[in-house]
Structure formats: C-alpha cells, structure tokens
Fold each of these.
Amino acid sequence: MKRIFLPTPSPSHWQRVLADPVKHWKPGFSAMTEAACWENEADRLPSGIAKLLESSQEPQLTGLRLLAAFPEWAVELPGGDTPSCTDVLALAANEHGLVVIGVEAKVDEPFGPTLGEKRATGTSSGQLQRIGYLHGVLGLTGLLKDDVRYQLLHRTASALLTARDFHASVAVMLVHSYSTKTPPSGRADYENFCSAVHADPSSPISRVPDFRHPMLYLGWSTGEAGFRDTVLPSMPCPTDDMSCVMRDSR
C-alpha cells in the first residue's frame, strides 16, 4: 500500500481513489459532496468541522490549522485483505500538538451492517478476528452489542491507530452529515455507538474516557447542504492507474 501522495488538481480527482469509482461518484451522494466541500476550502478545515471543534472549548481542538487531508485514507487491519478506508483523514495542529481527524461523510447513506450481522457471517472469513482486534484497539473489556454499527467501530479504531502512527496527541472520529432529515439519517446509530464506548451521545463532540495518549473524541458535524447539489465531472480512468480499478475496500 503506497504512502506517496500528490495534491489534487481538481475535486474530480477524488474519484480515482474511491473503492468503486463508478458506483460511488454520483451527485447527491457522500463521495462527490465531500470532495466539493473540502476542495471549496482548499487550505482550511471545512467550516462546519472547524466550528464543531471550536465548540468543544478543549485547548487541543481549538485554533487548529489544516496541515494535510487525504481522501480514502487506508488503514490495514488484521483478519482480512481489505483495509478500512476513511473518507477523509485530516492532519491538523495548534500549539498543543498534532490532531488526527478521521471523517466519515454521509448524505443519507446508512452505516452498513451491524456487529451482529458481521458476527453471523464472519466465522470463516477472519471477520471475527478483526472484530476482536478492533475491540482491543479501543480497550473494550466486554463485547459491544450486536446492534452497534460495524463501520463506526472500525473508523474509530482507524483514527486512533493513525494518531498513534503520527504520534498525535488527539484522535477524532467524526461524522460529517449532509442529511436534511429530522433527525439526520444515521444519527440514532451514531448515538448508540457513543453510548457503547461511554462517550456522551447528546454532545456534538465528546471525549471517550480512559484515552490519554492519544486522547480520543467522537463528533457529529453538520455539513452545508448546498454541496449536495454539486455536480462534478468524472475523470477518465487510465488503464495503467490501479487506483481506478474497481475494488471493495469497505
């Protein structure tokens, strides 16, 4: 897995790193919406994310400047061949140190299967090994309930593992929601996950207890709904560009 990155010439270049560049690159869905949002800011955190972090009033999360952002950041996990791919992995910093922010973008897409569904189908695929590993990363002494969404578990673990790799002082896993429904799509699943790991589900951003190096936060940020209407062109897929090969990294 390469760790060499180039700046994006345009928002459409995000398409090439998607797990399925054809299926996932559509107006009104999270991949295109998130690309439009981040590229609109260029050298800063999206305004909704910045406001969320500022609202925490935590010294480690205020006044952050964006250092770099990586679409489809992949983290290798044991128990399978496919990595966990975070929609956007941002490195930000202030005078207190480095912060890793793992962003899961959603319009109205679901969070995918529950842990119960994964457990029921994972006996021969290494899935149970991966689930056990993720529990260990988060320091969970008991098993999470079957109704917890698996995606939230491995995205949180990925943010934490990446923060450790970069020796960051803080890891944040946040949902960047463009849903206009009331309540927003997926909000109940997010709150259920917060409760499961002892974070405050009622707070826009909440610290997960017992994490010190790095500290761990969970957050829910509301994105600007106007980006849902953005229509970005598709990029041609060079035959020698393996990042365009359709694959399932989820």
Amino acid sequence: MNEARSQKQSPINHQTTIIKMNTNRKSIRFRAWPIMLLATVLSMALPACEQFDLNEDPGKSQLAVLPYQSLSELELAVTGTYNRLHRALWMTTAFVSAWGGDDLTTHRASNKADFREYDQRLVTPGNARTRGTWNGLYQAIRAANTVLVNAAETDLPDRQAQDQLVGEAYFIRGFAFHHLARVHERIPLVLDIVPNFEIGLASRQEVFQQIESDYLKAESMLPVSSTLGATRPNKGTARAFLARLYMDWAGYPLNDNSKYAQAASSAKQVIDNAANHGFALVPDMRTLYTLAGSQNTEGVFTLAHCQPCGLANRKTGKLGLPGDFGGWQESFAEIRFFEDMPDNYRKEITYHTEIPLDANGRVTPDVANAVSFIPWTEFKDQQNPVFQKITGPFEDNIFNGFQNSRSDYLMRYAEVLLTYAEAAGRSGSVTADAWEALNKVRRRAEGLPVDQPAPGVDLSSGDIAELAYTERKWEFAGEYLRWYDLVRMERVEQALGGSARDPRVSIGTAFDANGNPTPMPLTKPSNPILGSLSPDNYFHPIPPDEVAQLPNLGK
C-alpha cells in the first residue's frame, strides 16, 4: 500500500486495512461486552432504537476475522451494520439524486449548491452529497461483508437466530448496492473483506444480478414477520425489494421486459402474504407522517429514528420550511407538480399551503388558535409550496428543529400494490386483483375506506400500467422516489423539458423595498434546467478522489 492510500483510505478498502492492523479477538471481545449490555438496555427501553445501538463502535465490534463464538457477538456485529446504514441514510445527502425529479426543488441560492446541481441536471464530479452517499453506503457494505465472511464459518446452537441475523446482513448489502446503482449505474461490487486496489466497475447486469442474489439469500433466511413497520426486514421485505429491483431491471438502461413478469409475481407474493408479514395500508394517510404514527403496518422497511438516542432523523422538520420562518429551505415542492396534483385528501396531507402564525408572527403548533396564516404565494424568501410530508403536521412541532425522532419509510406497502398493478399491465397479465391493488391506493387518496368499492373512484378499464405509474407520481410525491421512476421509463425529458415545469395558474407576490406586496403571476420554476435531460445524464460520476485511489473505477 502506498503512502497516499494509507493517509486517505477509500471507503471500499478502509475497513479491511484496519482489520489487518488489529486482529486480537480477546481484546475485541472485552471491549464489546459493555456495549452489548447497553444495547440490550436501550432495546428494551426505547422501541425506536431497537434497530441500532447508538454507542456501537464498528471499529471495535467488526474487526474480528474469525467465526463468531456466540450469538451475542453476531448480534453486535449486525447491530453495527444497522448503525452504518443509519449513518448513511439519516440526512438528505443519501437521497440527493431525488432532486432531479419533477416533484422536488430546493432554494435558488443559499448553501444548497449540491442539491441545485441535481435539481438543474448539472451535477459536478465533486458534488459533496454524491461523495457522502458513496462513503456512507460503502461503509454499510463493508460492515455487512464483515458479518457475512465471519458468519460463513460460524455454527451456533440457535441456527434460526443465526440465519435471521445473517439474512439481515445480506439484505442491507443488497439495499446499499441497489441504492448506489440507482445513482451511478455501474459500481464496484465489494463482496469480501480483503482489500482489492485493482477493483473496477461491474456492468449494470452484474450489479443487478448481485443485488438479486443478496435479496434472495436474505429472503431465504429471514423470518416471515419481524417488527412493527419492519424496522428489521422479514421475508416480505426482501421479496418487495426484489419487485422494486425487477422494475428497475425492466426499465432503462437494461430494458429487459421479461422482468416485468417477475416484478408482478414478486409483488403479488407479498400481497398474498401481507397479513403474515404484518403489512397493510394504514386507513388514514394523515397518520403516516406524524411522530406517533411513523412506525406502522405500511412500513415494508422502515429506518427507525430516536433523537434522544443519538439516532436522529435529519431529513424532516425545518429543512422543508422557507427562510422567512427560520427554515433551512432545503426541500421544497415544485409549483407545477403541486398545481397538477389532483385536489383530494391525499393532496391535503401531502402539502402545507399556508403557515400558521401566533401573535408574535412566529410559526405555531397551535394551529386551531393561530392568529394568522401566510399562504405560500406570499413567502418573501422563495415562493414554493411546503411538503407536509417533510415538515410534519404543525401540531407535531418538529418544524422548529432540524433533527427529530420520526421514522422514515424506505418502502411503503402502497408501493408494493402499485408495483403489482403497473407490472401486471406491462407484462400483459392484468387481473381483477391488479385493478384492486390500484384501487385500494386510489380510495385512500380520496379519504375513503381502502377495502370498500367506491364508484366514481375505482377503475376497471384503461391502460393499467400507465394509470398505476401516474398514481405512483402522486402517492410518493416528496418521498425521494419520483426521479427513479422517470429514469426507468426514460421520461426525464418529458417531465422536465421545455415548459413542463412552468407554473400555469399560481399567482405569487412581489414585494418592493418597503415590503409592500403586489400580485405577480408565477411562470417559471425556481431553478431552471441547465444540464442535459438525455439518458447519458441520468447517472452520476464516481467521486473523483475515489477514482484517484482506485484507478480502475475510471475505466
């Protein structure tokens, strides 16, 4: 290893270098035991923390290169893997590519340059958020690899518990590879703990095959059900993510249409066993984005957060408010998307169209007794609608902080239903069940019971694939998914090009030097497109400092 490599390690090879430096298993075990006890106490006292141990130190607990001697050792290593996943995903950094979608935008100035690059489709190789995503997810992959390598030679008395933990490691690795592939297309497949400074980029096909393998292995080892909201994955979680993978595989750039049938079959399998997995749509969408309701049956895989434990969510709260009200002005709603969204119950709980103020002109959680309300069209800093999904209901009072304990959905059951409907349509296997899957989501969007037929809302004819694709657009607005749907269907130009993002009917407000308002039509998006909308700009460069250390990544 040369000096440059030793001074600043690639996240791909860093952990294994440390392993070579310290393989004293007794020392590792001695230091890990107090942390395991703390993790046990926290898991009993704080349900939201059961996914992670806030004080777990992967640098200590995951250095072992020998088989695990006890279930506690294996549990600690897997806990460290979850910890790495949380560190990778706790901020908007990991989801920065979603700003390429037509649902999300950011501040036109301020310190949001990394987000604007994605928003304007002009992403530079040195984008710090891209680098942060890469680092965080490869750290999670390395942690999972440590578990998988060590566990391969481990045979513990409780084989069922061992298999579940190993299955979780396979799932986390598959998830991390999948997320990275959605950003970069081609990535290095790091599958071992042995450093490889000659590693190169795998093909898209190879990457997808590896993700499929990891999800399938996870499915074979995980239990049928796990925790509420699947904060730890179960068999249904793995199968649902296989359905998502097959949708990506069927779309751009591989365009393997045969995968639509596999996506439909996988989603249907989850639907048919939803009760056993603990999955169901929550009756009222409003509860999905509350502190109290963020771990529920709709979570197919949920990232648990617990601010007092040091496991905060930093993607919500004031990040979605404009500067007028002390917001971080990071995650705003696109005006045209907001205008086009059907006016129904779902839209009502997706957005805040006005801000409640108290007598001192401050945002108040006491909405019922607010003195005044400021509509988004009268914001002085930047006039864009606010995502209620991001700020939360004002009554929850998370808008005052940039960190909170609200958990995140890495997949909702609604996605499984809509994946089934769309994939059934695209594979030519439309059934009454496919229409029912679509209609369940549509009914709830209108505030109706999900399982009761609703004339005037239910559909039974038409292009179900396109109907489901459009339903996804509205259902997952602001949830960092829209961009990937545009990519797989090669519809970025259609969604972002020309006047597609231009507001049509919104009347904003211009303020003079004295603060006097004048109505002003809003005719352009906050951040204009500057880069290419063609498929050769769908995926983003490998961080250049990574290529400098591992030159084959640039080939």
Amino acid sequence: MTQPLNEDQEQFRAVVDRFLTDKSPTTQVRRLMETDRGYDAGVWKQLSQELGLAGTHLPEIHGGFGFGPVELGIVAEQMGRHLYCGPWFSSSVMAGSMLMLGADEQGRESCLPGIASGESIATLVLDDLTAPARVGQHIHADLLSEGATLSGHAGIVTDAHVADLLIVVAGTGTGRGLFSVAPDTAGVEITPLQSIDPTRKLCRVNFEAAAAIPLGELSEAAMEAAWDYMSMALAFELIGSAQVLFDSTIDYMKMRVQFGRTIASFQALKHKSADLLLELELAKATVRQSAHELANGGQEPWLCSMAKAMAADACMSVARSAIQLRGGIGFTWENDTHLWFKRAKSSEVFLGSPYEHRERVMQMMERSVA
C-alpha cells in the first residue's frame, strides 16, 4: 500500500503548487513556448534561489535541500500539472542526479553547488535516450594526461541552448566516463531542433575533439541508479499532467449540454471516464510506490521503469480522451488541451518508451532470479 504524504510533505506540495499556479499559467506557457530560450529567467531565479527547488534532492553538503525521491516526485508532479517551461528537469533532475550518483567527489564539488543554487544551468548529454545500457556508444572520450577530448554526437538534448554546463556520458574504450564541457568550447556545436512539444526545448549536440574535464569513471550501477531517478521523476511529471487533464475534462463534461442534458450524464461517457480513472489511479499508485522504494534503498529498482511505463500509458490515454471528449473545441489551438497532449506525447518516449521500460523490467527480474 502506498504511503500518504506526511504533513510536512503536504505543505511542501502546497507551496510548490501555489508558486507554479502564479508563475506558470497557460498564458505564460504559451508566451514562453514561442521564444527561443523557452523560459523566464526571473521565474527560474525565484524557483531555484527563493524556493530552493533546483536543489530539491541534491546533497546538503553541496548546497541542496537533501530531500529524498518522494519530495523530488512532489515537485515533478507539480511541474507536470502546470507545464512549467524551464530547465528544472534538465539541470536538477537529469544532470544533478547523474552527478550525485555517478561523479567522483571532485566532480560533485565542482558542479553540484552551482546546479543546486540555480546559478548554473546544466544539461545531461546522453547519446541514447532509450535504455541505460545503450548510452556511450556514439560519444567517445580520449583520455589525456590532463583532461580529455570528446568526439561524437547526441541527437536529442534538453535545454542545451541555454546551458552553462554540459554533463556528458561518453565511452572510454574500457567502459564509460562522466565529463563536463563548457558549451562555448571549441569543437562543440549546439543546434536547436523543432519538436512536437514546444514547452520543452530540444537540441542536437556535436563534439569534434572538444576539450572536457573528467568527472570520474561511470559504473553500470551508477548509470542504472541515475536512470531510475530520472524515470521516476518523469513518471511523476506525467501523472501530474494526466490528473489536470482528467479533472478539466470531467469539469467540461459536467458543463457541456447536448440533447437537453450534460454529456457527463451519458452512461457510455461515464464508463469511459471510469476506465480512465482506473488506469490513472493504478499508475499513480505505482509511481508513488517507486519513489518510496528508492527512498528505502531500492531493493526493487524495476518499479521505476514500471512506473514510467504505466504513467506514460495512462497520460496518453487521458490526453487522447481529453481531446475527443471535448468534441470540436478540443482540436482548436485556443483550447489548452493540446499543450498537455504534446507534453504527454514527447514524454511518452523520452528516457525510454513504455515498451523499452517493460523490457528493462523483464531483464532486471531475469537477473534477480539467475
């Protein structure tokens, strides 16, 4: 049974919700998604420095709050509810988690304080976003007596165009390593991409013998653990989006009148809504259990992949139905439903599709009984 939030966690959730309700209404989302940078620097400063959300789960010794996966999930869920446009997921969740779990002590000391304070925006450069075992095949590091050089490319990197620091996973010939690269380094090329989801900016990153700072050898266990953190946080974001879509759709059905009665009273639509609610609640329970599992030591890490798969499926089911149940208005640009649909569609395959996460679950279970 999933544990409910305690009083402190409920208060924390309420604070984040109030802040994003004020700072990330859909009017602001629409404005920011049309800009090249894609985020408001003033809001980012408030979010990271006044609320401390950039360092939610990062260690206190490096300037973070030192909270656990549950609190990280609380923030991610609210980010999904309010479609926050900004580098929080790229910098805090992805780059921050990889550094926290995979970098050596010197690497953590040099990179994490800036990320935790929000003064430095980082992004994680992965050359494969489908499964952790496939990362490091298209970016290669040549280790030198002092430093390293990187060559290769990553086809999809979030928020690289606004990053102050690139955290890169690269193959070393004997394994994988973690490296930091300044975006303005010679040999680094960052190209913004068009995406189905304009609320989350994507780029392509190329390296041609670009100078890099080694941050330590990246073990398979650290790579898997960071992937679990990222998948769990993205699953929370997905259920946050799904919940707001479900609630707004039910409200619309209660208001929309057809044949002299609200469409919410039609039995077929009641059944449809019940099916959506069941799928969403099962996903929410799994996602929240995955956070508690990580907080308690991760004895069943496969839960994070199962959570991502179920959350992606549930969010897409709700998003598709949210458009259809609104009728013609749901297909218009002026209606906000498409904003969440596009985020849901892009997040469905980001960090692995539901199929790939279920395949990972199967592989982890097979290893556990071998």
